[in-house]
């Protein structure tokens, strides 16, 4: 090995180490962004004391949290009952409450500040899919995250126009070029989730009618799931939301799904359903996903805060349980698009 090759190896090691630290910093910053507004505004509120807030929220954790029957939470709650905590500030209370939340709800649970108003017309608030026709009749569909759709909708704002724009960006080209499509690359890399309804409505042409995923609570009772019935998509978690969708019949072509370490939440739901709930030939390429595959429930807390708590888990149509379980791709790849195209070329010819 010459001197230049040695230097190059050292540079690569340093770069990879730096990227790990950068990812860690990003996680910390995101957590701080979620937590900080709650602490600041709660400190000025006299509606409830920090200790009362903690006790009320912990009661929800103990009853509804996904991991409420597992030993780490049992130990935490036993200690809390034996030695109740008192807090002089919301800042110290929120730090302890976040620790408890991670134990009982896992990494997919958050306490967030309510947003009084979101201007849905602000530029770049919503991201929309892209559709590209590649060689040999392959369609490359990239689906971006839909978190802001979820946030704005939960704020009570009508997003029907934006919902339809997202779905029809994909469905219209499928409908218009159906006969020429030989395979699909569905790109879910860096899709951090958001609205299950939008993602499944957008890709309804991949599925037959029927149940696509099932949801179970922390008592292992089925509480709902995601299903398609003709032109109706339903997402049920204790209560049911239904959506009128532009329904396309199932497209019988092979589908390559691209995922990576940032594919999470609703995007993981979609990848699981494609893997287990469709009759078409499909394969996952890329890197293991983020593992945010628990089912969330929302609770309104005091001081204008909301709790998004993991209260259940997914079960695929094949019977596999996903409880914050990452999705392992069929083909681990650093060049997933190239590998997917190679597989599609061979599969569509076969």
Automatic annotation (TrEMBL):
<dbReference type="InterPro" id="IPR005151">
    <property type="entry name" value="Tail-specific_protease"/>
</dbReference>
<dbReference type="GO" id="GO:0004175">
    <property type="term" value="F:endopeptidase activity"/>
</dbReference>
<dbReference type="GO" id="GO:0006508">
    <property type="term" value="P:proteolysis"/>
</dbReference>
<keyword id="KW-0812">Transmembrane</keyword>
<feature type="transmembrane region" description="Helical">
    <location>
        <begin position="21"/>
        <end position="40"/>
    </location>
</feature>
<dbReference type="GO" id="GO:0030288">
    <property type="term" value="C:outer membrane-bounded periplasmic space"/>
</dbReference>
<dbReference type="GO" id="GO:0008236">
    <property type="term" value="F:serine-type peptidase activity"/>
</dbReference>
<dbReference type="Pfam" id="PF03572">
    <property type="entry name" value="Peptidase_S41"/>
</dbReference>
<feature type="domain" description="Tail specific protease">
    <location>
        <begin position="129"/>
        <end position="334"/>
    </location>
</feature>
<keyword id="KW-0645">Protease</keyword>
<keyword id="KW-1133">Transmembrane helix</keyword>
<keyword id="KW-0472">Membrane</keyword>
<protein>
    <submittedName>
        <fullName>Periplasmic protease</fullName>
    </submittedName>
</protein>
<dbReference type="GO" id="GO:0007165">
    <property type="term" value="P:signal transduction"/>
</dbReference>
<keyword id="KW-0378">Hydrolase</keyword>
<dbReference type="InterPro" id="IPR029045">
    <property type="entry name" value="ClpP/crotonase-like_dom_sf"/>
</dbReference>
């Amino acid at each position: 090995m010459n001197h230049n090759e040695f230097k190059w190896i050292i540079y690569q090691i340093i770069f990879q180490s730096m990227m790990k630290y950068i990812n860690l910093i990003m996680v910390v910053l995101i957590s701080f962004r979620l937590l900080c507004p709650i602490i600041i505004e709660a400190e000025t509120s006299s509606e409830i004391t920090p200790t009362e807030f903690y006790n009320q929220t912990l009661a929800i954790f103990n009853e509804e949290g996904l991991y409420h029957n597992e030993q780490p939470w049992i130990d935490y709650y036993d200690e809390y009952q034996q030695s109740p905590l008192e807090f002089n500030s919301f800042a110290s209370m929120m730090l302890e409450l976040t620790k408890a939340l991670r134990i009982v709800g896992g990494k997919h649970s958050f306490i967030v500040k309510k947003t009084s108003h979101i201007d849905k017309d602000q530029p770049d608030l919503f991201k929309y899919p892209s559709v590209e026709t590649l060689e040999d009749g392959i369609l490359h569909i990239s689906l971006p995250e839909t978190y802001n759709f979820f946030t704005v909708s939960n704020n009570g704002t009508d997003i029907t126009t934006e919902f339809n724009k997202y779905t029809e960006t994909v469905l219209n080209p499928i409908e218009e070029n159906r006969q020429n499509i030989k395979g699909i690359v569905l790109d879910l890399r860096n899709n951090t989730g958001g609205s299950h309804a939008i993602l499944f409505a957008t890709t309804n042409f991949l599925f037959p009618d029927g149940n696509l995923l099932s949801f179970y609570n922390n008592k292992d009772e089925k509480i709902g799931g995601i299903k398609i019935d003709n032109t109706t998509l339903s997402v049920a978690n204790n209560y049911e939301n239904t959506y009128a969708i532009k329904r396309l019949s199932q497209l019988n072509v092979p589908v390559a799904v691209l995922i990576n370490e940032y594919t999470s939440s609703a995007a993981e739901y979609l990848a699981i359903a494609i893997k287990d709930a469709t009759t078409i030939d499909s394969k996952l390429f890329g890197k293991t996903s983020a593992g945010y595959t628990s089912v969330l429930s929302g609770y309104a807390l005091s001081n204008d805060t909301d709790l998004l708590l993991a209260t259940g888990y997914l079960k695929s149509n094949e019977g596999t349980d996903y409880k914050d379980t990452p999705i392992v791709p069929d083909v681990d790849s650093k060049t997933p698009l190239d590998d997917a195209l190679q597989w599609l070329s061979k599969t569509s010819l076969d």
